[in-house]
Write a structure and sequence with these properties.
mainly alpha, 51% helix
Length: 98
């Protein structure tokens, strides 16, 4: 399998991927394409789906970037609705008496 993938590294055995490397890669890709943490945990045979499996979900920032872009777009869309000049003026602080 390693030979077919071009990962044999006969002269540099320390570079050869181990089964656990392949397992982690699969789990990261599963999380990256949207598999839920319980599904990833089940595929890996984890008893606790939250603790260990979350490691794989946090590797891909695509979902984070998408959520931030959507929030930014929603915030910008409110500019058309809530013009600053139409908002009530901020309350003035009262002077403090001694």
């Amino acid at each position: 399998m390693l030979k077919d993938a071009g990962l044999d590294y006969k002269d540099q055995p320390e570079l050869r991927p181990r089964i656990h490397d392949l397992r982690r890669t699969l789990a990261s890709w599963m999380a990256g394409v949207g598999a839920s943490l319980p599904v990833v945990a089940k595929a890996l045979g984890h008893a606790n789906s939250a603790a260990v499996t979350e490691t794989y979900a946090r590797l891909d920032l695509t979902a984070v970037r998408t959520a931030m872009q959507q929030a930014y777009a929603a915030m910008r869309a409110t500019e058309k609705i809530y013009k600053p000049e139409l908002l009530p003026a901020p309350k003035q602080k009262r002077a403090h008496r001694d």
